[in-house]
């Protein structure tokens, strides 16, 4: 497999992770009442790859 | 016509009795105030009538397929729905047909004063707005029976007044049962009073009957000093009470009317400061009833 | 039926507005992609990390494409199902706990419609996520490890879907029983693990056990279908229907537990 195909294959993984992260961050900023401090969720979303945004959506969001 | 008949309604949680042997009747298009201190069993009683709780014993007899509207003390909403989306859903679940539901929802939201928030998400609502939306969802399907748990206690005085007026306007064709501890407001909209304490009904009847029983209205004459007051009492055979310079004449069938009193006073040259018709407030009566039992 | 459609619309709106409709599929797609990718790059990663002694020749059998698809399914079976349980644990329990259910329960609500609308919505999102995850994983497997007949993959997806529908019914029943979301997740996880454990320990001859459905899917991928696969699917569907009845009944019985 040549280099370009490999990069093409890897790009979607980063894109999806990035999209989830941005999505979670934008939602966090708009969230008037998250379940816990905003800065903490910000760190969790950015630092913990993949699991961070999921944790935020499941626990942190509180369905506003 | 009786809309609801409650017979010996009792609710126990383990050893705790929340409501005991409650019996009353709600007549069509009447307003009944359920009055009592916190923990008296008002919410439990309303929840049983709303069919959320089943009674431990006793019966609730209602017209078949009666439509009920219920407003909990702290109504909770799906924050991600808009006001109109929620009232429409509520109306449709309660059987309003699809086309009518939207129209009725808009009308109802306007009626409760939420015309500027129809398409706003409920998550952004203030406490007062939620209370109004709570009332809207309770009446959107035009229920025959409206159950309201402390509908006005979370509101400021202006909001209270406004909501009481709305409720009064519904009274013509809706049977209303509401709990409250704000007795001044209850006084305005009460065909029947139910006083509860410790899960029991300690007094019931019409506002007039309850007042008569526990604190009849009286005519109060205020004299310049207590000598005049005593003099007045000795000159007349009316049943009365003297409190310093005040003479209190209970109003009853055999007692004097205001007209009689004014006539007599006009013929006597005494130092009179004022004559007033005095009515015991519901609050005084309630305190009296609670103290008596 | 009328109430079912009404409540279905409410559930759809909820899942759109809390973004579940986006993030759950994203996670499954990621799970599907990451598995073949890491497997493909694993030898290179190990080599470059320098943990191997000088001169050691690194030999690792390259997985077949079928093995890769089975590995993706394994990911769904663990992380995927965990995500679904967490995402839907509060569906009923949460509504009761917060009191939002009260204003529905005081109406002439059909609890069958109520339960089924929730199961349908959760299931549609879960199934679409699983399908997209498998298809993305299939594409990556094809890229890195070679071809598998599409029809074989579709068979696996189809069989695994029955399992997912059953699990979602289990999650919603747990949510109908439990007093809060955390409890619901514990019941769902617990049951999910216990049935697998029991089947693993004692169920060697229980060929019709629904727990074996994922395994049958993999067997079919690599060879011919196990003769018990249809029986197991039938029993899974039957159990799902029983869970519907249990869920509606429990939701109704627990209506008094909603916060007033």
Automatic annotation (TrEMBL), chain A:
Task: Give the UniProt keywords, A-Z.
Answer: Cell membrane, Membrane, Transmembrane, Transmembrane helix
The Gene Ontology CC terms held by the record are: plasma membrane
The portions of this protein that span the membrane are 7-26, 38-59
Identify the stretch annotated as signal peptide in this record: none
- Which residues does the UniProt record annotate as the domain Cardiolipin synthase N-terminal? 19-61
**Record InterPro entries:** CLS_N
So which domain of life are we looking at? Bacteria
Q: Name one Pfam family in it.
A: PLDc_N
> Do the record's keywords include Cell membrane?
yes
The protein here is known as Cardiolipin synthase N-terminal domain-containing protein
**Which lineage?**
Bacteria, Bacillati, Bacillota, Bacilli, Bacillales
From TrEMBL, chain B:
Entry-linked SMART domains: AAA (SM00382)
All copies of domain ABC transporter, residue ranges:
4-223
Keyword tags: ATP-binding, Nucleotide-binding, Transport
Q: Which GO terms describe its molecular function?
A: ATP binding; ATP hydrolysis activity
Q: Which InterPro entries match?
A: AAA+_ATPase, ABC_transporter-like_ATP-bd, ABC_transporter-like_CS, DrrA1/2-like_C, P-loop_NTPase
Lineage top rank: taxon: Bacteria
- Check the record and name the PROSITE patterns matching this protein: ABC_TRANSPORTER_1, ABC_TRANSPORTER_2
Provide the family line.
Answer: Belongs to the ABC transporter superfamily.
What name goes with this protein?
Answer: ABC transport system ATP-binding protein
Please give the organism: Planococcus donghaensis MPA1U2
Question: Lineage of the native species?
Answer: Bacteria, Bacillati, Bacillota, Bacilli, Bacillales
UniProtKB/TrEMBL annotation, chain C:
| Domain of life (superkingdom) | Bacteria
Species assigned in the record: Planococcus donghaensis MPA1U2
Listed A to Z, the keywords are: Membrane, Transmembrane, Transmembrane helix
GO MF, one annotated term: ABC-type transporter activity
User: Which Pfam families does this UniProt record tie to the protein?
Assistant: ABC2_membrane_2 (PF12679)
Query: In the UniProt record, does the keyword Transmembrane helix occur?
Result: yes
The answer on whether this UniProt entry bears the keyword Transport reads no
Question: What sections of the protein cross the membrane?
Answer: 21-42, 76-94, 115-141, 153-176, 183-208, 228-249
Provide the Gene Ontology terms for cellular component.
plasma membrane
Q: What is this protein called?
A: ABC transporter permease
